[in-house]
Structure formats: structure tokens, C-alpha cells
Amino acid sequence: MNLNELLHVLPFYKTSTTIDGVEINAIEMDSREVKPGCVFVCISGFTVDGHDYIDDAVKQGAVAVIVEKQVEASVPVITVDDTNRALSVLASKFFNYPTSKLPLIGVTGTNGKTTVTYLLDEIFKQQTKKTGVIGTIQLKIGEDTYPISNTTPDALSLQRTFHKMLDEDVDQAIMEVSSHALDMGRVYGCDYDIAIFTNLSQDHLDYHSNLQDYLRAKSLLFAQLGNSYDEQGRKFAVLNADDEASDLLKRSTAQHVMTYGCHNQATVMAKGIQLGAAGTSFTLTSPVGDIEISSRLIGMFNVYNMLAASTAAIAANVPLTEIKTALEQIEGVNGRFEPVVEGQNYAVIVDYAHTPDSLENVLQTAREFAKNNVYVVVGCGGDRDRTKRPLMASIAVKYADHAIFTSDNPRTEDPQLILDDMTAGLGESSSYDVIIDRKTAISQAIGHATSDDIILIAGKGHETYQIIGHTKYDFDDREVARKAIRSKEK
Ligand SMILES: CC(=O)N[C@H]1[C@@H](OP(=O)(O)OP(=O)(O)OC[C@H]2O[C@@H](n3ccc(=O)[nH]c3=O)[C@H](O)[C@@H]2O)O[C@H](CO)[C@@H](O)[C@@H]1O[C@H](C)C(=O)N[C@@H](C)C(=O)N[C@H](CCC(=O)O)C(=O)O
Ligand SMILES: Nc1ncnc2c1ncn2[C@@H]1O[C@H](COP(=O)(O)OP(=O)(O)OP(=O)(O)O)[C@@H](O)[C@H]1O
Ligand SMILES: N[C@H](CCC[C@H](N)C(=O)O)C(=O)O
Ligand SMILES: [Mg+2]
């Protein structure tokens, strides 16, 4: 593509020299990815400054650089106000505005995003549609999966991914939209058709200065639905009527609003909810009719997830019968309330709860169905919100008969200090142990288990690694638990 033509989409920019005749074959934001013929966009990051890598990029063949600071370079320099924003716009244009052709659903909220995207995936597959799903676990295009390093990738990877989805005839894209991504503008170039809000509770206060700021970031998804109306392709905000944060989100969007809930009046509601240890049933009421749902998903929080997905599916004109079939078919989501079954007479559940609210939800659910003791094995991630640590520990001792505090992903923090933060506020009477090594902690909990106990191993869910320092070691809670169960049986 001609560089002038690419830049045409930017309202203002300055060039150090003429760029007439400069052709580019790619955009890159990481000097390590630069190949001959690309334009390198310099991002001022949290860790390093992309402007410091211009020489590397040029050596590797970048034919122009886009900057927001004053720099010297041997290739044409294009200066813009904000490279991050420019990157989103340029990436959209470079890939020919993929999301204007691809129906796109975005899901935001503290908990439940991955679950809701997987429910929607099942619903659209039921309609024989080919789906593309972007989120915490992986990128999925049809049946092909690819590893992903952020829940919501950077703007460039995103646009490239949507382009690939179109190339591979995807009919429906579904993505998790993290608050970080919204705040950093990773999704500026995305044209959403439906935006879903799950819920708001405390997380990420290492990044956002307070809960209000965190909610404000989430509200950007609803503002980005835009304010143009199209009777053919209506846009919808799907909000949780039982979460008061929805008020601000409703005011943030100019588009149609559909709500879901169990308590407050909502467009789509769950009535007559039956929560069981083997599954959940309820009547879904909606403007297009009512239908009985009987699902294998467990816990009240999953009723909300099913309502969120169903409401978006109704907005996308999916018939209720297909929603029902999909919800009844899904067995569970990787690493979310996932049982580890080796024929033992106690339950072992691996779950991704890593926030106070999600831990409370899963422990309450375990408590409801436990015929005997509930044990929880849990830690908190390093280099993440410190203020959630004591909250998670006090929830663990409140709901479990016995808590074992251990390491999650300590990252660059001292694991003992993370555990000290967790246990700092616990009283003498609380029943807990501290075992730094996660494998030992899991083995010990399983070693103590007797008939009908529930052991909840929380925090890492689908993760198949543990990050200590900067190194990722192989670690899978499910495998570790499986081995511990087997060696106990011997
Ligand atoms: C705090 C944060 O979000 N950081 C993100 C940010 O990293 P950063 O600002 O530190 O980047 P940097 O290393 O300073 O690099 C700046 C620029 O220099 C470039 N560079 C760098 C090195 C080099 O040799 N050459 C070079 O050109 C980089 O490509 C980049 O363009 O930009 C990176 C590239 O887009 C992201 O991968 C990275 O996410 C890190 C890994 C992260 O952990 N993010 C978490 C907090 C996050 O975003 N999580 C949410 C999910 C939360 C949830 O699900 O609850 C998510 O969406 O994943
Ligand atoms: N609607 C919900 N409300 C509260 N807790 C939930 C809800 N749905 C799931 N959870 C809990 O939160 C955990 C994470 O769920 P899920 O992965 O779906 O959320 P997420 O928003 O994608 O999380 P992340 O921000 O880490 O990507 C689950 O393992 C479960 O413990
Ligand atoms: N997306 C979340 C995942 C947390 C998972 C938990 N296992 C941890 O490492 O803290 C984050 O990056 O904060
Ligand atoms: Mg997720």
C-alpha cells in the first residue's frame, strides 16, 4: 500500500521529508517483528519507549516511522499527536476496516466475560455459523486455536485477527474487552454491533486509580457503540439490571438498551430458578417469548452469564429454541468450576476466581452444595492489585471450613510478601494454613479430604503455567490435583 494513501485516514500529521512513492507492506509496533518494507509505529509504553527502538527497526528494514516525539531517523519520520490512537486508525484502514463487515460482539465486566463469550460461541455454532472468539483462554477461529498473551490484544493484532477471520469466512466475532484495553485504546478501531456488560466489582486497582475510574474505562465500550442508527443492523447495549453500575453505562450509549436480570425489572429475566449440584434450571422470559432452560452450569453467577449471552443472542435475532439447545448442550468452560474426577468420594473443583467477588460467588456455590467440609486453596497474583489480597483471604476463611493460602502467579514479587498481604487482617480464630508451594498446597488439601468434602482450587483455572519472576513454568492445577488424588488412593 502507498504510505500517502494509508496516512490519508489521519486528519493531521507532519512528515520530515517527502513520502511520495513510499510503499509499505505491513505496519509493526514492535521492532523485533519488523521485516523489510514496513512502517514502524513507536508506542510510549509502561516499560520501555518504542521511540528508542527506531534504529533497530530501520536496520531490520522499516521504510518509515510514525512517532509522537521529536526523533532523528534515516527514513521518513511521520509525526502525530498520539501514536497509540493513530495505530488503531491506521491498522483498521490497512486491513480494510474488517469490523465494518464482520458482526462483532464485545463483552466487558469484572467477572464472567470468558464464560459469556463461550456461551455465545455455542449459541452461534448452533446456528451453524462460523465463529471467531478472542479472549483470556485463546484465540479461536472455527475449530483452530492460537495462544494469546492478553485477554484483549493490542490494536494492531486485533485488526490483523479480524482480517484473518474475514479471510476464513467467519460469520460472527465475539470478544472479551478488558478495562485495560478500553483505557489504552486497543479497541478504538472496532465497530461493535452488541456490547455486553456482566458486572462490576473490585479488581485491577493497581491500574485504575479507583472503582469509579475502572467503571469509566468500562463505559467506553458503550460509548464506542457510536450514535449512528441503521434499521437493518441495529446496535445494542446489553446491561445487567441487577448491577447498579449499569446506570452509567446506559447513559454512556446512544444505542438501544436491553437489560437482563433476576431481581429488578429487565427485558430478559430468569424466573423460577432452581440451583442444583448437577445443574441449573430456570424460565427465561423475554419480549420474543418464554422458554425453559436446563443447564449443566452451576451457580447463581452462571444464571447471569446465561442471561447475558441469551439477551445478546435475542438482540442478534437468534431463535429462542436455538439458544435453549446451545445452553443445554454446553458442559462447562475450560477452568471455570471444572471438576477433577478420578473416582474419588470427594469433589475437587478448579476455578478461575481471582477477584473477591468471584471467589465469594464460587465459595457460596460450593458451600450450598457441600454435604461435608469445604476446603479452598487460593493465592493472589503478583504485580497486580494489592488491595484485593486481604479481601480474598477474608472471603476464603469466611466461607470455607479451612483455607490454604498459597502462591498464584507471584511474577516479580516475593511470594511470602503476597501471602503476608493476604493474611494481614485475619483474626487468630481463622482456620488457615500458609503453604508457599502451590503443588504442596494442593496435595495437602487433597490429603486431608474425606468423603463428601469439596476442595476448591481457585485462581488459575485454565492456566497451564505458573509465572515466577519472569519465567513461565509448566503448571496445571487440574493435572496436579489429578496426581494428588491418584497418589492418595494408593
Ligand atoms: C500494563 C499493560 O497492559 N501493558 C501492556 C503494554 O505493555 P507495555 O506498555 O509495558 O509495553 P512496553 O514493553 O513498554 O513496549 C512499548 C512499545 O515498545 C515496543 N518495543 C518493545 C521492546 C523492543 O525491543 N522493541 C519494541 O519495539 C513494544 O512492542 C511496544 O509497542 O502493551 C503490551 C503490548 O500491547 C501488552 O502486552 C502489555 O500487557 C501486559 C503483558 C499485561 O500484563 N497486561 C495486563 C495488565 C492486561 O492488559 N490485562 C488485561 C486483562 C485483565 C483481565 O482479563 O482481567 C488484558 O486485556 O490482557
Ligand atoms: N457472572 C459472574 N459473576 C461473578 N463471578 C463470576 C461470574 N462468572 C464467572 N464468575 C467467576 O469468575 C471466574 C472467572 O470467570 P470468567 O473467566 O468467565 O471471567 P472473566 O471476566 O473473563 O475473567 P478475566 O478478567 O480474568 O478474563 C470464574 O471462574 C467464576 O469463579
Ligand atoms: N487477567 C487477569 C488474570 C489473573 C489471573 C491470576 N491467576 C493472576 O495471575 O493474577 C490479570 O492479568 O490480572
Ligand atoms: Mg476472561
From TrEMBL:
**InterPro entries, alphabetically?**
Mur-like_cat_sf, Mur_ligase_C, Mur_ligase_C_dom_sf, Mur_ligase_cen, Mur_ligase_N, MurE/MurF_N, UDP-N-AcMur-Glu-dNH2Pim_ligase
Q: Which domain of life is it from?
A: Bacteria
| Keywords linked to the UniProt accession | ATP-binding, Cell cycle, Cell division, Cell shape, Cell wall biogenesis/degradation, Cytoplasm, Ligase, Magnesium, Nucleotide-binding, Peptidoglycan synthesis
Pathway in which the depicted protein is active: Cell wall biogenesis; peptidoglycan biosynthesis
> Any idea which positions bind UDP-N-acetyl-alpha-D-muramoyl-L-alanyl-D-glutamate?
31, 150-152, 178, 186
Its Enzyme Commission number(s) read 6.3.2.13
Q: Which GO terms describe its biological process?
A: cell division; cell wall organization; peptidoglycan biosynthetic process; regulation of cell shape
Residues holding ATP: 109-115
The listed locations are: Cytoplasm
- Which HAMAP family does the protein's record reference? MurE
Q: Which PANTHER family match?
A: MUR LIGASE FAMILY MEMBER, UDP-N-ACETYLMURAMOYL-L-ALANYL-D-GLUTAMATE--2,6-DIAMINOPIMELATE LIGASE MURE HOMOLOG, CHLOROPLASTIC
* Function of the protein: Catalyzes the addition of meso-diaminopimelic acid to the nucleotide precursor UDP-N-acetylmuramoyl-L-alanyl-D-glutamate (UMAG) in the biosynthesis of bacterial cell-wall peptidoglycan.
The protein's name: UDP-N-acetylmuramoyl-L-alanyl-D-glutamate--2,6-diaminopimelate ligase
- This protein's species is Oceanobacillus polygoni
Q: List the top taxonomic levels of the source.
A: Bacteria, Bacillati, Bacillota, Bacilli, Bacillales
